Amino acid sequence: MKRLVILGGGESGVGTAILGKKKGYDVFVSDFGKIKENYKEVLTINKIAWEEEQHTEKLILNADLVMKSPGIPDKASIVKKLLEKKIPVISEIEFAASWTDATLIGITGSNGKTTTTMLTYHLLKSGGLNVGLGGNIGKSFAWQVAEDKFEAYVLELSSFQLDGNYTFNPHIAVITNISPDHLDRYEYKYENYINSKFRITMNQTKEDFLIYDDDDEAISGWFQNNKTKAQKIPFSISRELEKGASIKDKTMKINIKDEEFTMDTTHLALEGKHNMKNAMAAASVAQLMKIRKQTIRESLSNFQGVEHRLEKVLKIQNVQYINDSKATNVNATFFALDSMTVPTVWIVGGVDKGNDYSELMSLVREKVKAIVCLGVDNKKIIDAFGNVVDVMVEVSNMSDAVRTSQRLAEKGDAVLLSPACASFDLFENYEDRGKQFKQAVQNL
């Protein structure tokens, strides 16, 4: 019996444990932190051995195969020891994909991947496909492979998940865009991070498809020096493309395999240029999956959007409060500020992953009337924008941030939470940060 050791007892770890057990592995789950009670129960009911708050080497280094959660870096000492012993260390995605023959659609990118994933899932489901949703979102992919019988999966994939993939081959891959993020995990080398994203296409064949943003510098740069075997489907909002997706006179045109799809972009449910790109990517997938054109149009116009992503919370005294807590990097915040059409009080800050705020400068000058810094260390933000906006306030919790913003905002303004940073200094995660924002707004 082969031994499968799982590092990390969260959603992906427990899902992998269940699939591993079902496929006849001797399974052991080890978490250096605490495992949540509901996951412990699942493991115990399924008679899967586990430990928490430690990694017992003699129970780990005897593995035939190791699945490590995406949050654990390669430089963790237990991972180094496994690699020294030449024990394969893979991702949940790699493990689960080897046990399903469903059509796999993989979506990655620095920003927009959740919206594009949810939108693609919405299009395929509305089109009557029996489709699952997983990866970096929702229920663990491995868990679904163990228990469900989907014909296709739409998977949101982070660079960390792709790093643990070696044979994974999605039939359709999407790269929404690439901008510097998580560089602390890539030796602070942007090209390492770019290469990591392109792992999504490394095993694709000429029967497969790669959909990508043709306006993106990092993506174009990679194609100058590298090739993919997949059929390329670009999308662009800056110029017309003969093949792929583009916009002309407010009409989205997608041309794939001599099939043309058109839609009036004024009917799109999601606002902003970046969402036009997300819609083109999702619609391209839907067209490849043979969803009816009318269904694609209807689904693009009735999509509800993603929580914590430019989510309109409430209008109070004619001030619109917007929750964009999912903006954990500068590029995401760029899109948010770019889509603002009224004077904005901007709530920003958190754990900085090596941010360069200079690219926001012109937007801040044009759109932002006041900045509320919500973080333990706000020095970089104050240095960057101190001379650009008239009012700058530091706060240390969400209710103060919202109350301060209310004082600074006038009728017709907006208050935008778009932190451009990770949330771990004051919150559990970006969802917790977004929920606290919404709660504080409701308490006004």
Automatic annotation (TrEMBL):
- Compartments reported by the entry: Cytoplasm
MF annotations from Gene Ontology = UDP-N-acetylmuramoylalanine-D-glutamate ligase activity
**Ranges of residues in domain Mur ligase central:** 107-286
| Chain ranges of the Mur ligase C-terminal domain | 308-421
The residues listed in the UniProt record as binding ATP, with positions renumbered to this chain, are 109-115
What family does the Swiss-Prot or TrEMBL record give for this protein? Belongs to the MurCDEF family.
Protein name in UniProt: UDP-N-acetylmuramoylalanine--D-glutamate ligase
Organism, by scientific name, is Flavobacterium arsenatis
